[in-house]
């Protein structure tokens, strides 16, 4: 899967699954703002055809983000407009960070199961949210923004938590269902309980929920330096479809 229209579709699903608090459209580019929490929710996504002079357009974007006190960040794939945008940004001094693999799985290709350790909610609840923030070391200052973003999701969502007999959280994550796709987001295992197969149990439980609710395919995003996660998803049969990365304007 590498065609332009497919990449654009996956990027649209991703933006819907992790919505920003504010969005602005600028000549085919989608500008996203969320108080600086998470690069993907505070970045420029050049998904659609553009008409404006590229240098003037970049300057306009820079002014918008700088006026909000945010870093100027572009989220790029091989499907952007104009095609040479990555090279243009590099020449303008934008640094490369956050190289990420987008991986896909047909749910017909493997068996899924729902773990007996798993509990599932279709609404965001305080217990899942507090455990998630603790496992991911989310700063208190960012938690309000994150909760607002999660409450802005319009698609069907499952919030899943694995617990043991002591009611300790072993792992948690969420699945977002839209258009026959189940997206895996914010998958995390407790540092005290890693390397025990809980990641596979968590992901399988989310995929199982997705299949029961009409999903035919799954997708996820994993950073290229996260070797344990890459190995986990490879075991489950996920295969890379494309990569994305960020270009961030260096501070003067």
Question: What structural keywords apply?
Answer:
7 helices, 31% strand, 3-stranded antiparallel sheet, 8-stranded mixed sheet, single chain, 252 residues, alpha+beta, globular
Describe the structure.
With 252 residues, this protein is an alpha+beta fold. Helix content is 32%, strand content 31%. An 8-stranded mixed sheet has the order 4-11-5-10-9-8-7-6, with helices on both faces. A hairpin with a 5-residue loop joins β7 (156-163) and β8. It is globular.
Q: Quick recap of the structure?
A:
This protein is of the alpha+beta class and 252 residues long.
Overall geometric form: globular
Helix content: 25-40%
Share of residues in strands: 25-35%
- Multimeric status of the protein: single chain
One letter per element, helices H and strands E, the order comes to HEEEHEHEEHHEEEHEHE
Read across the widest sheet, the strand sequence of neighbours is 4-11-5-10-9-8-7-6
Q: How many β-strands, per DSSP?
A: 11
Rg to the nearest angstrom?
19 Å
C-alpha termini separation = 39 Å
Helix/strand/pairing category? alpha+beta
Largest sheet: 8 strands, mixed
Low-confidence stretches: none
The number of helices is 7
Give the averaged pLDDT, no decimals: 94
């Amino acid at each position: 899967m590498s065609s332009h229209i497919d990449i654009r579709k996956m990027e649209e699903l991703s933006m819907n699954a992790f919505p920003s608090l504010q969005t602005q459209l600028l000549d085919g580019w989608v500008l996203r703002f969320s108080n600086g929490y998470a690069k993907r929710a505070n970045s420029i996504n050049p998904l659609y055809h553009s008409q404006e002079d590229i240098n003037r357009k970049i300057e306009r974007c820079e002014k918008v983000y700088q006026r909000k006190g945010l870093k100027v960040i572009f989220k790029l794939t091989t499907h952007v407009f104009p095609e040479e945008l990555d090279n243009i940004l590099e020449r303008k001094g934008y640094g490369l960070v956050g190289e990420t693999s987008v991986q896909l799985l047909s749910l017909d290709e493997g068996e899924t199961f729902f773990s007996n350790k798993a509990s599932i909610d279709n609404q965001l609840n305080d217990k899942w949210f507090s455990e998630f923030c603790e496992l991911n070391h989310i700063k208190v200052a960012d938690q309000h923004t994150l909760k607002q973003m999660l409450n802005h999701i319009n698609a069907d969502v499952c919030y899943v938590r694995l617990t043991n007999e002591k009611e300790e959280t072993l792992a948690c994550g969420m699945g977002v269902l839209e258009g026959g796709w189940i997206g895996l987001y914010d998958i995390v295992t407790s540092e005290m309980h890693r390397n025990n197969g809980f990641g596979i149990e968590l992901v399988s439980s989310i995929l199982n929920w997705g299949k029961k609710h009409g999903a035919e395919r799954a997708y996820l995003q994993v950073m290229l330096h996260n070797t344990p996660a890459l190995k986990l998803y490879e075991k489950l049969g996920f295969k890379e479809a494309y990569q994305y990365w960020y270009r961030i304007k260096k501070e003067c």
